[in-house]
Write the structure tokens for this entry.
Amino acid sequence: MRRDDPQEVVAGRVGLFLSEMARVAWRAIAANPLRSALTALGVVIGVAAVVALTMVGQGTTQRVTRLLEGLGTNLLTVGPAQGGRGPGGGLVRGGGPATLPLADAYAIQEAFAGEVVGVAPVAQANFQLKYGAQNLRATVVGTWPDFAQVRNAEPDRGGFFTWEDVEARRRVAVIGYGIAQDLFGGEDPLGQRLRIAGIPFTVVGVLPDKGDQGFVSTNYQVYVPLSTYLQRLSRPEAGGAKVNTIYLQGADRDRLKDLQEHLTQFLAQRHGLWDPQSYDFSVTNQQDALESVNQTTRAMTLFLGGVAGISLLVGGIGIMNIMLVSVTERTREIGVRKALGARPQDILGQFLAESVVLSVGGGLLGVAVGLLMARFVGQAISVTPVFSPTSIVVAFFFAVVVGVFFGLYPAWRAARLDPVEALRYE
């Protein structure tokens, strides 16, 4: 004769007890569907907001990361001092006043030959472009051939200009995708004469479509040899040629911080400056800029998530209020159950189960609503939300905890009711 395992018997009884409690709780909730739905609404909104904000926040972080990496990897940027202070972090800049001596770029190229794979000084300004009857205003950038590698600006048609073009001061240009579309339409720009401020330049390359890059867009930029730019398009500078920015691509990503420090010291010595507060330049690290953006995004996501968490607390308070009302309305029912032999823990479990079912149902619905919200918000701000199982689990778990916490007091009150007084209650 087969004997049942005591552990299996206990587990079966517990499962049967929980399923029965869930069935009774659901029947009590279904008896007032509108009130139950409004009670769970706070939990739904809270969970949905947490899920949506987390997914959109992570998507925004990834978008900014791809944007900065698309502007060049292992990137250091030398620019004018920020607010008269020493070197610091910040986003990769594309301009600023032309205060850096071009001689600094030559010196950096020579002194850091083994530590950098490319140096690209930049001088830029806006000029009128014209081809045939078409014209538009765009940014013209004078730079060196290394710019194509340093800033991920390799043309998909034609090629970038060469050092020979720089030395010969040739009037050649590489144009962005948007300029090629607007000025040349369906015509092939390669080999055509484009006028910049009335000066003819031959188009030798066209960049691929980089899309909307936020604060920097290469689609509407023209690149020409720096020597040609300084001779033909800019005014003579007192004390030698000046540039807006100098970009460098480090050879080793892990040593980028050391390279930044060495470069800062090198430029300080060249400029005869010993106090960091008096530096007339700044050296920024792409990784620092990226981390700064990510920290800001994470802080904003946490802040908004905290605000959304308040909705969960409000929803929990709503659950507690409705459960207290339910205890009052069902006082005679509680008295009858106790008179028929129900123990205080049975009554406690019944009302606690109703609270948990409300919070679990609201949590599940909130997750579904949050996924839809993330999709629509992402489409509205052109961000691809990142699916985050951790945030979903945390939000759902918090919803369950809210249901248990705020349902415990009403359940405790119901369990402590005197059966005689409960039966007399009108």
Residues 286-329 form the longest helix (44 residues). The CA atoms of residues 338 and 419 lie 6 Å apart.
